[in-house]
Amino acid sequence: MADSKATRVAIYARVSTKDQHCANQINVLTQWCQRQGHRITTVYTDDGISGSKRRDKRPGLDAALKDAARAEYDLLAAFAVDRLGRSTVDLLQTLETLHEAHVDLFLHAQAIDTRTSTGKALFTMLSLFGELERAMLIERVNAGLARAKSQGKKLGRPTITPTVTDHIRSLATAGLSQVIIAKQTGASRASVQRVLKAKRRGEATHSEAMSATG
């Protein structure tokens, strides 16, 4: 019978290529849980997914963090810090999500356990470095925008001329797909979508106006 007081642990494992396997990471973490007397609730994996991918591109990590918010477990265990992410900013977001959910973190390779005073201190340091990297990134982006503006470069989305807009609408009325319309007009698919969306909004507004005066 499982000990109801045992710490509920979720294991997260990730490998970057299909040739690698999560089994080794899971085995190591399972053995650690057994030695500690913890109870494993769920094992989340991302197979063949790079650590540079965002959370929404990593279904295993995304599910683990959503379950953390639902209080499905008490501690998330991963083999190493780079399994969670290779960007300090992404790692910070993961740490913030766990912290807000009152879920602790164990990293086997770095021997970090946020339930200990040392682990909490390292957690704080990671958060500070993440904040610093995020601030530096924003500063670099703003500096780049300012430099481009000073050089006379036009920022923002490319404009679509009225002629191209009319051409897009005509092709759409003829039943052509957005991909073909984009190729024939030289506009991006996103621009085609914006033009057609605006067209539908205009038609809907016109229809409502006619109904109101009819």
Describe this structure in words.
With 214 residues, this protein is of the alpha/beta class. It has 2 domains: 8-132, Rossmann fold, CATH 3.40.50.1390; 162-213. The protein has 8 helices and 5 strands; from the N terminus they run E-H-E-H-E-H-H-E-E-H-H-H-H. A 5-stranded mixed beta sheet has the order 2-1-3-4-5, sandwiched between helices. A hairpin with a 4-residue loop joins strand 4 and strand 5 (112-113). The radius of gyration is 25 Å and the shape is elongated. The model has no long low-confidence stretch (mean pLDDT 84).
How is this fold's topology laid out?
Layout: E1 8-14, H1 23-36, E2 39-46, H2 59-69, E3 75-78, H3 81-84, H4 88-100, E4 104-107, E5 112-113, H5 117-150, H6 162-173, H7 178-185, H8 189-213
Parallel strand pairs: 1-2, 1-3, 3-4
Antiparallel strand pairs: 4-5
Q: Summarize the biggest pleated sheet.
A: 5 strands, mixed
Portion in strands: 5-15%
Number of helices: 8
- Percentage of residues assigned to helices: 55-70%
Q: How many strands? A: 5
Poorly predicted runs are none
Average pLDDT number: 84
CATH domain class of the largest domain: Alpha Beta
CATH architecture of the largest domain: 3-Layer(aba) Sandwich
Radius of gyration: 25 Å
User: Structural class of the secondary structure composition?
Assistant: alpha/beta
CATH fourth-tier homologous superfamily of the largest domain? Resolvase, N-terminal catalytic domain
**Shape from CA axes?**
elongated
Query: What order do the strands of the largest sheet run in, or round the barrel if closed?
Result: 2-1-3-4-5
CATH fold-level assignment of the largest domain = Rossmann fold
* Element pattern in H and E: EHEHEHHEEHHHH
